[in-house]
Amino acid sequence: MLASYIEILRHKVPLVQNITNFVAMNLVANTQIAVGASPAMVHSMEEVTEFIEIADALTINIGTVDTDWGKSMLAAASIASKINKPWVLDPVALGTTKFRHQLASRLLAIKPTVLRGNASEIIALNASWKRRGKGVDSIDTVTDAENAAKQLARCIAGVVAVSGSVDFITNGEHSMRVFGGSEMMSKVTAIGCALTGVIGAFIVDQQPFGATIAAHACFNYAGSIAAQYAAGPATFNSAMIDALYSIKPSAINNEIKIEEA
C-alpha cells in the first residue's frame, strides 16, 4: 500500500541534502518540508562530502550548474554511492550544451538510486550512454521514452522516472504508470525539480521503486487538489505546498490511478 510510504517518511523526518539550481531552491525546500522531510541546500565543495555523511539522502539537479558545482556534484554522488546513501539525479536540459551533457553522463556512471527527467532528457541520456547521442528533441512524449527508461534502469541497476502528463516509472523489469496532476503544474517553474526533491525524501529507508511511485502519486494528488483552489500559477504554487502538507496517506491509495505498464 502506497500510504505506508508517506507515513514512514513523516515518522522519519529525513534530512535531505540538495545540490539543486538557483531557480528551484525555494520550491524544493518548501515541498520537502511539506511532505515531512528536512531540506539542506549544501553545494560547496568544502562541505558536500562531509555533509553527505550525516544526510539521509542526496538530490542532484544540474539546472544552473557550473564547473565548481559540477565538481561538488560528482564528489557528493561518489561518497553517497560509496556509503550506500540513496540519491536522485535530475539531468535538467542535458542536451543543450556539451558541458552539461558530459556532466550528466559522468553522474549517471556513478549509478543514482533514482534518475528522474522528462522524456527528452531520458532519451538523450540513454543515447549518450550508448555513444550515439544527438541531443534533446523537445517534442518527445513519455511513451517515446519508455524503452530508453527501461534500458537506463538496467544500466544503473536503479529506478528511472519519466515525468509527463502520465508518469512512467521503471526499474528495468517492472514498470508502472501514475496518473493525475494538473495542467497548471506546467505553468510553475521548477515544479519538476520539486518532484525530484520529494522523491529524495521518499526513498530514505524505503524500497526505491515503490517509494518513487508513492512520491509521484503524492505529488500528482497534491497538484489536482491545488488546481481546485488556484486562480493562476502564483496561487497554484502556494496551494500545491499546502496540499502536500495536508495530504492524508489514504488519499494516495484511493484518489490516484496507478496501473502496470
From TrEMBL:
<feature type="binding site">
    <location>
        <position position="41"/>
    </location>
    <ligand>
        <name>substrate</name>
    </ligand>
</feature>
<keyword id="KW-0808">Transferase</keyword>
<dbReference type="GO" id="GO:0009229">
    <property type="term" value="P:thiamine diphosphate biosynthetic process"/>
</dbReference>
<dbReference type="GO" id="GO:0000287">
    <property type="term" value="F:magnesium ion binding"/>
</dbReference>
<feature type="binding site">
    <location>
        <position position="190"/>
    </location>
    <ligand>
        <name>substrate</name>
    </ligand>
</feature>
<keyword id="KW-0418">Kinase</keyword>
<dbReference type="InterPro" id="IPR029056">
    <property type="entry name" value="Ribokinase-like"/>
</dbReference>
<dbReference type="GO" id="GO:0004417">
    <property type="term" value="F:hydroxyethylthiazole kinase activity"/>
</dbReference>
<keyword id="KW-0460">Magnesium</keyword>
<keyword id="KW-0479">Metal-binding</keyword>
<comment type="pathway">
    <text>Cofactor biosynthesis; thiamine diphosphate biosynthesis; 4-methyl-5-(2-phosphoethyl)-thiazole from 5-(2-hydroxyethyl)-4-methylthiazole: step 1/1.</text>
</comment>
<comment type="similarity">
    <text>Belongs to the Thz kinase family.</text>
</comment>
<comment type="function">
    <text>Catalyzes the phosphorylation of the hydroxyl group of 4-methyl-5-beta-hydroxyethylthiazole (THZ).</text>
</comment>
<feature type="binding site">
    <location>
        <position position="163"/>
    </location>
    <ligand>
        <name>ATP</name>
    </ligand>
</feature>
<keyword id="KW-0547">Nucleotide-binding</keyword>
<feature type="binding site">
    <location>
        <position position="116"/>
    </location>
    <ligand>
        <name>ATP</name>
    </ligand>
</feature>
<dbReference type="GO" id="GO:0005524">
    <property type="term" value="F:ATP binding"/>
</dbReference>
<protein>
    <recommendedName>
        <fullName>Hydroxyethylthiazole kinase</fullName>
        <ecNumber>2.7.1.50</ecNumber>
    </recommendedName>
</protein>
<keyword id="KW-0067">ATP-binding</keyword>
<dbReference type="InterPro" id="IPR000417">
    <property type="entry name" value="Hyethyz_kinase"/>
</dbReference>
<dbReference type="GO" id="GO:0009228">
    <property type="term" value="P:thiamine biosynthetic process"/>
</dbReference>
<dbReference type="Pfam" id="PF02110">
    <property type="entry name" value="HK"/>
</dbReference>
<keyword id="KW-0784">Thiamine biosynthesis</keyword>
